[in-house]
Amino acid sequence: MRSHMNNIRVTHLSEEISIAQHKEFEGGVSQVTSVQEVAILPTGSHDWVIMKYDDTLDSLIETLQNARTLIKKKKDLEYGVPKVWDVDDIIDTYDSSPDLTLKELSRRSGWSVGELLSLLTHEDVSND
After folding, report:
1. 3 state SS of 68
2. Which of 18, 80, 102, 103 is the most exposed place for a label (fewest CB within 10 A)?
3. CA gyration radius for the chain?
4. Among 68, 64, 120, which Cα is nearest to 91's?
């Protein structure tokens, strides 16, 4: 089996981003795409943010825009600009990061886990 690995690294607001697409070729003919993702690389920790994209340009562009938004919001928080994400930010991030836990999404977005559950499941999970 032969592999073809494409990685591009760029920087935005001093954060390093990796754009990856890895393909494997079986029998030299058929190809299987094994990885298509955009990752915001950690700076000194193991706090990776990995967002998958499909095989369209629109999907890649949307995923890169989501990465840019996450980096901007992270920088805003670092500089004391508290921002709570809006519904579109949460849904876009959740949809493009299938391994993201609700706890981590809560930390990033400023929403409680209960609020996120209500939003994402369309159910009222408040403790009335």
Report:
1. helix
2. 80
3. 17
4. 120
| Strand 49-52, strand 2-12: pairing | unpaired
Residues of the chain short of pLDDT 50, as ranges, are 128
Contact, 107 vs 85, CB < 8 A?
A: no
Residues 67/49, Cβ–Cβ less than 8 Å: yes
Is residue 113 within 8 Å of residue 125, measured between CB atoms? no
Residue 81 three-state SS: coil
Report which of 44, 23, 38, 46 is spatially closest to residue 93, judged by C-alpha positions: 38
Residue 28's pLDDT is 63
Paired tokens of 71: 């980096």
- What count of other Cβ atoms lies within 10 Å of the Cβ of residue 16? 13
Contact 25, 4 (CB under 8 A): yes
Q: Tell me what pLDDT residue 128 has.
A: 43
Tokens linked to 56? 């369209």
Which residue, 36, 37, 34, is CA-closest to 51?
37
The percent of residues in the chain predicted with pLDDT above 70, rounded, is 81
